[in-house]
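Long-time lurker, first post. I've been practising inverse folding by hand and with some scripts of my own, and I keep getting stuck on stretches where the structure tokens seem ambiguous. Below is the full token string for one chain I'm working on. Before anyone asks, I'm not after the true native sequence, just a reasonable design that respects the backbone. If someone could post their per-position residues I'd love to compare against what I wrote down in my notebook.
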């Protein structure tokens, strides 16, 4: 689905560009205050998972990120939900952004440290890829709770409308399912 690819590409590009800029501007320097007491830029080279957890498992995180990317790319062919495509695009772009660091950055192949540089009060330092992954997780939970399916008949094949409308009114999806079934019965009769 085009939306998945575009979202992933934008997230990946913004993540990689901001990491290059942050590394060159912040390396060896004190943190830079952006918004007084709210946001500062601090360079951290993170060997662990999100928020610096499990620093000794870099190779494992590299493998997990690669598997996630492959699963999303394979699933993309069956997606018919724009909302799911956006969520999976955020996840794919974030996973590939941090995977690139783990593969290409020091100290070595599959053990590279992820560049983190955004710091909020009482929160670990993070990056654009981490933000995309967290937003994807929240959106995926919301879509699942609302019953929006990632795959199924294409929009032209049934009475389902826009995913955004289904998110706004979960009862609408049940009504659409009945309508789609009725349409199929009429068509087959």
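-- Answer (accepted) --
I ran through it position by position. Result:
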């Amino acid at each position: 689905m085009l939306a998945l690819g575009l979202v992933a590409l934008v997230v990946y590009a913004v993540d990689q560009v901001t990491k290059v800029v942050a590394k060159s501007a912040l390396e060896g320097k004190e943190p830079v205050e952006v918004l007084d007491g709210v946001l500062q830029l601090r360079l951290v080279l993170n060997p662990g998972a999100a928020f610096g957890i499990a620093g000794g498992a870099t190779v494992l995180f590299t493998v997990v990120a690669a598997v996630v990317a492959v699963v999303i790319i394979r699933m993309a062919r069956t997606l018919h939900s724009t909302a799911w495509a956006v969520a999976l695009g955020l996840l794919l772009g974030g996973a590939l952004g941090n995977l690139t660091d783990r593969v290409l950055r020091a100290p070595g192949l599959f053990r590279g440290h992820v560049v983190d540089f955004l710091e909020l009060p009482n929160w670990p330092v993070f990056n654009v890829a981490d933000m995309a992954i967290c937003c994807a997780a929240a959106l995926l939970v919301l879509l699942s709770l609302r019953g929006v399916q990632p795959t199924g008949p294409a929009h032209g094949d049934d009475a389902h409308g826009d995913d955004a409308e289904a998110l706004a009114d979960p009862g609408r999806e049940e009504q659409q399912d009945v309508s789609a079934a009725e349409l199929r019965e009429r068509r087959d009769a």
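A couple of notes from the structure itself: Residues 2-26 form the longest helix (25 residues). Strands lie at 32-35, 39-46, 114-119. Happy to go over any region you disagree with.
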